[in-house]
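Folds abound. A case:
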Amino acid sequence: MGRLAALLLLAGCSGPKPPATITAPVQQPTLAAVPPYAVDHRAGTECVPYARARSGIGIFGDAYSWWETAAGHYARGSKPAPGSVLVLRKTSRLRHGHLSVVSAVVGPREIRVDHANWQPDAVITSMPVIDVSPANDWSQLRFWNQEARVWGGVYPAAGFIYNAPDKVARLKGSGTTTTSGNGGSTHWASHKPLP
């Protein structure tokens, strides 16, 4: 009886196989798929002067104050665009907020940014950032930490500032906005004479 069962089992294994079902694999992002970013520890600077120099947006003051200061001068929105400045809100961890310059839009919920002083005294280029906001409005973000190989905590964002005139209140020529350190006063200085 044992030999008969073994022969039947072997016969079952050698019979024709049923046709394979073809299914498309679900694409899951893997940690290996997240590209590395560059860190330059020799280029010590703060995020504000770095963002101003890279974007050409002439705003001064703490990073978090850029969002309100840009109103009436520079266009703002919730869609990333290369060259736009991402403004992170002030938090207990980011006492002055933070600024990054969008270097690439990878997809509807993923961008690359360049910024200074995310790590002390360093400039990071091509850092992956994902939008984790429920409304896909880029108001809640996570930054990739390649050393730990994890997405970091959630940071609140105000949005993106574009180097273009605000359509609501058009600029009277290009210029520079200066905001006091506490955000209490703002000054707009035109670079060109008005026509």
User: Anything to note?
Assistant: The longest strand covers residues 155-165. Residues 36 and 50 are 21 Å apart (CA to CA).
